[in-house]
Amino acid sequence: MVTIKELPRDEYIELGHAACAGCGATIAIRHALKALGGNTILTVPACCMSVIQGLFPKNALHLPVLNTAFETAGAAASGIAAGLKFMGKDKDINVMAWAGDGGTYDIGIQALSGAAERQTNFIYTCYNNESYGNTGQQRSGATPYGAFSTTTPIIGKQEHRKPMARIMAEHGIPYTASISAAYPRLVFETYSKAKDVVGTRFIEVHAMCPTGWRCATWDSVKFGKLAVETGVWIMWEKEGDEWRFLGLSKRIAEGKIKRKPLMDYLKPQGRFRTLIKDPERVKEFERGINREWEILKKRVGC
After folding, report:
1. 128 pairs with which residues across the strands?
2. What is the secondary structure of 57-83 as a DSSP string?
3. Please, what sign has the CA dihedral across residues 225, 286, 25, 42?
4. Right CATH number for 4-300 from 3.30.70.100, 3.40.50.970, 3.30.1490.20, 3.40.190.10?
5. Whether pTM exceeds 0.85
6. d(CA 40, CA 192)
7. pLDDT, tens digit, for every residue of 206-240?
8. pLDDT tens, 168-192?
9. CA 198 to CA 278: how far, in whole Å?
10. Across the chain, which distance is largest between two alpha carbons, in Å?
């Protein structure tokens, strides 16, 4: 793994951006852009990042940014990639869509799936803060089972989240990864690898959101790591036809360390305050996690 000293000192996101304190998406994009460099064009649909980057006419990113409608990240990135190919610049400039889970799991999946089927040459990032964070924390397809949202306010969401990264991997694209913003060096390494791959690349980043998760801003990274340590979030990648676990998830899958108790993650977060009162629903939450582990272990072959 790259050391902290080896990380590039170049910064592509300025101080004074509009992110909330403790925002995991901002940690992730900072290190993703360190890997991709300044020869990158970004397209951002309606999401938190639309505001974080700064409202028109200002922009906190040292990159060209195309802001688009909620459902169009995949289409916009496809158009940029086609234009660069026509100009003969497709090998020199990286194209990346940076979208939230609402604009990926739900509203934007159609354009994204079409682009992946065509093997369009761009990187698509879903920073997953597990709700529609920019519009008031409504439930999305990525919201965990039992979690509070403003559209599931009484007993929380009743469905398990959609396995979006696996769905994209099954498109047969050359590179897919599921990582966490709580591990910035792994973020840097993942994008460094994706940069050299040709075709559609999909990276999902678990992005801590103290506002939506109802936890202290200074505990943001702590909860990102707890998600991995308890097995709630699994880090893995698929390169070509080879699946593999990454980071701490690899050590958990190999039995080298045990997952921390699930309640260490659930209890301190206000969004799970109703869920944790019902032992049967906690068991259902854990059942969903275990099912995902078993599926991925079969893919990896362990």
Report:
1. 206
2. T--SBSS-EEE--TT-HHHHHHHHHHH
3. positive
4. 3.40.50.970
5. yes
6. 13
7. 999 999 999 999 999 999 999 999 999 999 999 99
8. 999 999 999 999 999 999 999 999 9
9. 47
10. 59
